[in-house]
Amino acid sequence: MANSRPAPKYVLPTTISRPISLDPSAPGTIMRSALLIEALSNILGAIPMIFLTRPLLTLISSSAPSPLAVSLTQWLGGLICGLAAPLLLAYPNTRRAIESRTTVYWTLGAGEGALVPLMLWQYMSQGQGSGLPGGFLLGAAGVLGATAAWRLWVMLVRPEWMGRYRDEGVKGE
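Structure (tokenized):
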């Protein structure tokens, strides 16, 4: 009688994942490559922001970097390193990773959607002085804009690149 209780109908997050079977027509190979390339690019790009901050800022601006600029650049480098974590967590072909890819892409795309117009606005209002050269602002906006366009294209045109799976661990559902 003690074991006659029906199985719960709600799924609880666990550290153990039931087996899945990848859809051979949508294994997520392209997405996994893109996630890994972006995560590595983030980490490699953030390292000089954290550890070589003054020389990096000197390359961007002709004036000596202020202590505030150094601190904010290091914080931004730390944030960029942190943004590699969801990319790496979405990399494996597991249930959780495949399901998280869409959320990761929309979230990072939202950040890019905020930063690109801000950079372009700063470029257009050079007279007010953003502290960054116009070429740098346009270049950064271009890189982030291209990345956001890639995300939108994958999400809206090629969602199968995210990967698909069939749940193999549940019988009778």
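The chain has a mean pLDDT of 90. DSSP finds five helices and two strands in the chain.
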